[in-house]
Amino acid sequence: MEFPQQQKPAVEVVYPPGVKEITDKISNDELVKRLKVVVKTYMDMDQDSEEEKQQYLSLALHLASEFFLRNPNKDVRLLVACCLADIFRIYAPEAPYTSHDKLKDIFLFITRQLKGLEDTKSPQFNRYFYLLENLAWVKSYNICFELEDCNEIFIQLFKTLFSVINNSHNQKVQMHMMDLMSSIIMEGDGVTQELLDTILINLIPAHKNLNKQAYDLAKTLLKRTVQTIETCIANFFNQVLVMGKSSVSDLSEHVFDLIQELFAIDPMLLTSVMPQLEFKLKSNDGEERLAVVRLLAKLFGAKDSELASQNRPLWQCFLGRFNDIHVPVRLECVKFASHCLMNHPDLAKDLTEYLKVRSHDPEEAIRHDVIVTIINAGKKDLNLVNDQLLGFVRERTLDKRWRVRKEAMMGLAQLYKKYCLHHEAGKEYAQKISWIKDKLLHIYYQNSIDDKALNEMWKCQNMLRGLVKELLDLHKLPVSEANNAAMLGKLMNIAKNLPDAGKAQDFMKKFNQVLGEDEKLRVQLEMLISPTCSCKQAEICVREITRKLTFPKQPTNPFLEMVKFLLERIAPVHIDSEAISALVKLLNKSIEGTADDDDEGVTPDTAIRSGLELLKVLSFTHPTAFHSSETYESLLQCLKMEDDKVAEAAIQIFRNTGQKIETELQQIKSTLIPVLHQKAKRGTPHQAKQAVHCIHAIFNNKEVQLAQIFEPLSRSLNADVPEQLITPLVSLGHISMLAPDQFASPMKSIVANFIVKDLLMNDRSVGNKNGKLWTTDEEVSPEVLAKVQAIKLLVRWLLGMKNNQSKSANSTLRLLSAMLVSEGDLTEQKKISKSDMSRLRLAAGGAIMKLAQEPCYHDIITPEQFQLCALVINDECYQVRQIFAQKLHLALVKLLLPLEYLAVFALCAKDPVKERRAHARQCLLKNISVRREYIKQNQLSQEKLISLLPEYVVPFMIHLLSHDPDFTKPHEYEQLKDIKECLWFMLEVLMTKNENNSHAFLRKMVENIKQTKDAQSPEDAKANEKLYIVCDVALFVIANKSTACHLDSPNDPLLPSKFFVTQDKDFKNDKEYLSADMRQMLLTGKPKPAPVLAAVNKPLTVPGRRIYVKTTTASDTTSNTSTINITSPLSSTTINKNSHKRSIRQTKLIFIFQEETSQNKTPEACPVKRRGRPPKSASTPGAAEKGGTTAPAVGGAGRGRKRAADANSNTAAESVNSKMSKQNDEGTLRQIDLQR
What we know:
This is PDS5 cohesin associated factor A. The protein is an all-alpha fold. It is built from 56 helices and four strands.
């Protein structure tokens, strides 16, 4: 930048004595030296020195020349600025400069010099401070009011001062800045919007955090000038809030932040603004109302705020937003109530009525937050919440949503713990909420399984006690790597049940280290988890353990808090022998009719049943606490009651707790045995089961006792009276499972001669032909109930033997497969109703799944039998699908079933009911999560890893889908689309994360399958082709959903030899089985033609219904005969069927989705076509046995009708070997029910 040459002044300049002429010819050092003398001269002058003022007037004018104002040397500029400031002081009130432009230049020049205040360590800082002090004291900037564009100077001044202030400035600097700015605001005609913005911008959170001193300066300035600046602030907010002129300021988008800050500084600043907020509260824009509510919640809820009392109209208007139509607004109001109750107890009365309404809000989140609001206030001080507010929480313990109920129960429990157990506020507070304990215990009477809070609490406690015991047992073993790894697993499992599992893991490791070093601590912990530990002993143990871990010099100890939490969870603080005795006495009162059950809102019968259920739960977790003659006497009374549930619960309590009855309570034993025998012979099925298990669990001479039950029951079996068969079959099944060696021979005879030949292979009664696929338990015929129990007996018998030496398991599996193939009608006499057939299909599928849980039987289940079992999840009956899926999930999540059964869930992609698909997906997520967690927690061998790693489900899924009975035309788009959906149903969950490059592992696995043959039919070219096509679809899905699948696989996947046969080394299958067009259709969908008449011929629909049109091909008109002839399956099973290919009728399902109110009818709204079963004859089995042909079956209307066979199929029936694993023909594909 070029600076002007010094112009010779028009009037000769007079300099102070000793100062030579100041020109541009001298050096900077000399210039500074001469200016310092000038500065000293002006500093010593005052306003009364008229002679000197006149003498040095020319010098004053000379110092304002461009040479000085634009000098490049900062020292020169600073000295000149100091001179000019003194000149304004000396010549006040009139400045020697008459030109407005010159005045503007001078003040902008002085303002720029004030930036030097920023560096307090600068050698020149004292001069900068002098400059500031002089300007503030004289109020020099007030001269600028006469200038038209004075606002530019003021804005620049304010910006400079706000930018330079920092924490190194002392109070004097801040005071002079304040004086300088406040004089401009208070003595001017008003504050422009631009100037106001320079002040307010420092209040915005982002700027506030950057420069706290600037915020404090702005805050102090606003407080000092409140009377003057309030009008300007009101005008700003009026334009933005009321008139909507957001363009008036760059701060318009921060109005609510500014209002909050201004209110905190001085509510007087917003005197005129508050009515504008009332206007905004009534805005039609929900988001705008939400923003205002959030702001006012902070203003009303602030600790020292008096806004509610000072502005009642605004407060009442704000309370009205509790009933706002916009859910987020109501939610914000409820959240505000918590702070308001804590900071302003006097407003509780106003809030109570509105919280009452919101406690019944239709939105779950709002009801939940009402509880949180009240509980948080109550935990701070119980006086903050009145009885009415606590009543709202009490009501919500009965809420329809579990999340709300849980929050209410947990909140009340926390209050009870704080004020009643820990006595933190005296007896008066404890008395106020003494009702909480009874309320929480009475919640046990709720029917919903979610409300079994006590049940879950004790289960968790029992599990944690078990883990701690196992940890202590490991400490008794020698130190080793394996021992350390086992300890780590226990510690991680313990940490998962504590709050903040991540921190808990570290604390538990530290606690374990302390345990290893302190034997006395281990002894105390062992005593604490001992079954005989009383509540009083537990209290002592906990006190001793915490005392050892307390460090006096450490005020907060999160490690100790976490250990305390663990001790609270494992200590028997609720239940010991005394507690059980007290509960039993209460139960006795209910039995005798002397209890106040009616006062508590329950009938005596309900009280007895619920009391027994409570004791039953405790019998699992605290068995030793029951061991007293008084307790057992009361339980014996319950056994004699007519209520079946009461007797069943009492037997189970005996089973769980009665291990010492035989040795220590002979009188109880002599009374109990006859009752157990009677229940095992003539009680309900559940009572019989518990009675047999009770005898086996608590008596030493159980062999004699079980024989006394077995022999009369086995002799009295009579298939002609099925009503009297169910209990005996249950008892015999459980006896054979518990004592297999003792009853091996008689059971085999019973199974062969009675169970199979007489019961399962005969239909004595004719079922109800109402066409329903499912009925209630009460409507099921006694004969079918007996058959279901007979199937369960077969399974229990085999599970007891746990070996297949007699080949009984093979025969049983063939029988169960035949049951599925025949759709539940094993005899083909068509006497059984459709609903009864559904029951038998479910029983057969569940039986195969149960046997698969035993390794010796899993090994002999053939792929065909596995496929039959899997297809039950696609049954035409909704309840069959639902119950089977639940059983499958429970067995898988407990790691009882082999991994291949997880593949069954892939078939759920075809389920037409959205809820069933969603449930199946949740089951998949849970199972995969459990397996991954188990792998992380345990060191596994390669063989074990293959059986658990979720990715290894893919081979089983591909094999299962390649044998899908609906997969008959592998090159048709619709069928390939179904396969793709099933594959993606599983792969989507597996591919959520690409852990350890699992996507590449999946790709490699599918590619490996493509290089094998189908072990089920290795020489069948079509079967292998279908397998390869499914592989190609799987590869297509994986490649389209993952960009990382083409990387190198971390490991070479292993394939199950039971399903895949390895090819020769020279074999290479690189054929693409999907055409380019097919790939495109699978990716984007099949193009849909739109003919002109399409809209004309479109079927009419009814709201709430979906219509699928059924089409029938010519092959539906005729049918060939297929007969299943079964003799005693445990010796041999012969199945005759067509051996040639049959086409599956191309039928589209007529599916009408209609919501029904009846619980029983809901699933019936989803009938589907059967799938997977071979065609069946319309004739009787007798006709088939004679080798004669039968008349073709006519395809009748109705749900679940049997499929007609292709007219071109071979009519001759061919006897097949008893091993169903040899069935390779497509005609033998199991056509099980599918709802699609």
